[in-house]
Write a structure and sequence with these properties.
This protein is an alpha/beta fold and about 230 residues long. The protein is about 30% helix and about 30% strand. Helix 5 links the parallel strand 6 and strand 7. It starts with a strand and ends in an 8-residue tail after the last helix. The structure holds adenosine-5'-triphosphate and magnesium ion (MG).
Length: about 230
């Protein structure tokens, strides 16, 4: 199976004394939806920033299919235009498309996330979950083959959370995308094909989401002070 996302022995530190990522290697097979879990400060966002090219690793390499789309934790940090349609179209500005081509790509992308009816809606009049779906539509319109999502449901209520994770799962399957989704919410593992666990910058476990979910639920049941 070919890799949609490949991280090969990546290390990163802000300060040489305190490594943030230590020889991390992981592979998300093309066409699959994987999640990345780990405690606060374990290096999840750093790894995603390295994948996007925002940070350069000290050692190791990353490979991912292009173009890719990025969805942030806070939906207000990524939508730049005043309306839904204009925001999705903005990402296509450099492609020299005709008006009709742009309109079709925006329409299709919004249909893919069930927001076509809101194409003229001002961004400020959307819910958090709808904003995250607009960000996803932006990636779909640009024909992204990889989606990177850093706690995209952190600010959403339970219903919007499930809608978003289901929407990403459906997009991954329908368009054969590859997605890596960072989360702290164990119920989201029900939608994943696989899961990675990061601990203090090292990848300590990976594989079947339900096994990892049970292991993490058992860990949560043990108070911090009793852990070794
Ligand atoms: N700009 C920075 N300068 C120095 N240290 C940083 C910087 N950004 C992050 N760090 C440190 O790097 C480590 C990893 O941070 P990172 O944001 O990757 O963690 P995370 O796993 O995403 O955590 P969270 O679950 O809280 O989002 C933390 O110890 C953090 O304090
Ligand atoms: Mg983070």
């Amino acid at each position: 199976m070919s890799a949609g996302i490949l991280v090969d022995r990546v290390s990163f530190s802000w300060d040489r004394q305190l490594p943030v990522l230590r020889q991390c290697s992981l592979e998300v097979p093309q066409g699959q939806f994987w999640m990345l879990l780990g405690a606060n400060g374990s290096g999840k966002s750093t790894l995603l920033k390295i994948l996007t090219g925002l940070l350069v690793p000290d050692e190791g390499t990353v490979t991912l299919a292009h173009p890719f789309g990025f969805v942030f934790q806070n939906p207000d940090h990524q939508l730049v235009m005043p309306t839904v349609g204009a925001d999705v179209a903005f990402g296509l500005a450099h492609e020299n498309l005709t008006y009709a081509q742009t309109r079709d790509r925006v329409g299709e992308a919004l249909r893919a996330v069930n927001l076509e009816h809101l194409i003229r809606r001002p961004i400020y009049a959307l819910s958090g979950g709808q904003k995250q779906r607009v960000a996803l539509a932006g990636a779909i319109a640009r024909n992204a083959s990889v989606l990177l999502l850093d706690e995209p449901t952190a600010l959403l209520d339970g219903d919007s959370q499930l809608e978003l994770v289901q929407a990403v799962q459906a997009l991954v399957k329908r368009h054969a995308l590859t997605a890596l989704w960072v989360t702290h919410r164990l119920n989201e593992l029900d939608y994943a094909d696989g899961c990675f666990l990061l601990e203090r910058g090292s990848l300590v476990d990976q594989g079947e989401p339900q096994r990892l979910k049970r292991a993490l639920q058992a860990q949560i049941a043990v108070p911090w002070e009793k852990r070794t």
